[in-house]
Amino acid sequence: YSMQRICSNRRCAVFHPDIHVVSHYKYPFGRCLSLKSMPAPIRGTIIKTLLCIFAVMAFGVIWGIASHDRILLALSACVAAFGALKVLPLISSVKKGQYQELLCTVLSDKKSSLLNRHQLTVYKDDQEEKTIMLSGRAALKPGKKYRIFLAGQEDDALNAVPDYLRPGRSLLGSEELEEQ
User: Fold this and answer.
1) More confident residue, 170 or 71
2) Beta-carbon neighbour count of residue 132 at 10 Å?
3) N or C end of the chain: which has fewer CB within 10 A?
4) Residues with Cβ < 8 Å from 2, sequence gap 6 or more?
5) What is the reported pLDDT for 6?
6) pLDDT value for 33
7) pLDDT confidence of residue 30
8) Structure confidence by residue, pLDDT tens digits, 22-50
9) Quick check: 15 and 6 in contact, CB under 8 A?
10) Do the Cβ atoms of 112 and 118 come closer than 8 Å?
11) Edge-to-edge, what's the strand order for the sheet holding 11-15?
């Protein structure tokens, strides 16, 4: 007997060919979205984050068991818990579509070492020059064309705020595009 899972919005149903609906259940984080259906740069960021969390946690667990150190085991459990607190909201926001995709050419990348931010000046495909404040580290080269994914949506109310007071947006991922 083959069973088929049908997903829509926030509910999934498992169907059997002879019986109508076998079961209904809700997904806690929105619609049914797999890692395969996410944009590749965002998927890469999530996978790298998960691998780092798993590597640190596995090392701590192995070392804690080998040395009979309960504190190290507790710290490894904390790494797993805080890692889940970092990854689950990221996956949830991507599933809800709370990110912005930009096709642009990077004109300049000014780094502010005191604030750990970048002031990225880009030239969008719709012939508009735009300044974006990115938080954290990014390796975008001026003169190259990129598809970048930014967390959240753009807030027009922040345009009146000076650049040094403007909050940085998180870069979810980027991919370099070939020039045509």
Assistant:
1) 71
2) 20
3) C
4) 17
5) 46
6) 59
7) 46
8) 333 444 444 455 777 888 899 999 999 99
9) yes
10) yes
11) 4-8, 11-15, 21-26
Task: Give CA–CA dist 48/83, Å, rounded.
Answer: 12
Cα–Cα distance for residue pair 90/172, rounded to 1 Å: 9
pLDDT (tens digit, 9 = 90+) per residue, 137-153? 777 888 889 999 998 87
DSSP per position, 33-99: --GGGS-HHHHHHHHHHHHHHHHHHHHHHHHHHHHT-HHHHHHHHHHHHHHHHHHHHHHHHHHTT-E
Query: How far apart are alpha carbons 153 and 169 in whole angstroms?
Result: 9
The C-alpha atoms of residue 93 and residue 99 are separated, in whole angstroms, by: 7
Strands 117-124 and 99-112: antiparallel
Residues 6 or more apart in contact with residue 68 via CB below 8 angstroms: none
- Distance of CA 163 to CAs 10, 38, 112, 118, 151, Å? 39, 31, 11, 11, 18
Instruction: Check whether 165 has a pLDDT greater than 70.
Output: yes
